[in-house]
Target: Endoribonuclease YbeY
Amino acid sequence: MDNINFFSEDIDFSLKKEDQIAIWLQRIAEAENSSIEEISYVFCSDDYLLKINQEYLDHDYYTDIITFDNRDNPEDPIESDIFISIDRVTENASDQNVSFELELKRVLAHGLLHLIGYNDKTEEEQQLMREKEEAYLSLQIN
Model:
C-alpha cells in the first residue's frame, strides 16, 4: 500500500501494523466506490495540531484530526494530508472508555470518510458518520 503513508511530527510515535491498517483503509475507500491516489497520515502533538488549526483554519482550539483535501476536483482519486493529535486520541479514548487502538482507528477512518464525502456538521450527518465509522471498525483487521 504505497499510496497510504504514516509519519510522525514532533512526537515519538509509530503505528502498529501499518500494512494491515493501510489495507483496511483501502477497503473502506473501495466499499465507498472511491480510490486513493495518496494519503499521508501525520501523527503529532496537541500543540503541533493547534498551530495548524490556527494557521490554516483560523480556529483556536484543540482537535483530534484535521484533514486537508489536496484534490482540485472531488471526483478525482483521493489525495490528502491528514494530521492526527495523539494527545487528543489518548484523551478521547479515556473519555469514551475504549482502547487507544480502537479510538485511533476510528479517527483514521473518520478522516477518510470526510474525503469520501461524509460531513459531520449537523446531527443527522454526525449520526451517519458514526454509523459508517462503526461499520468499518467492525471490518478492521486485527
The two ends are 17 Å apart (CA to CA). The mean pLDDT is 95.
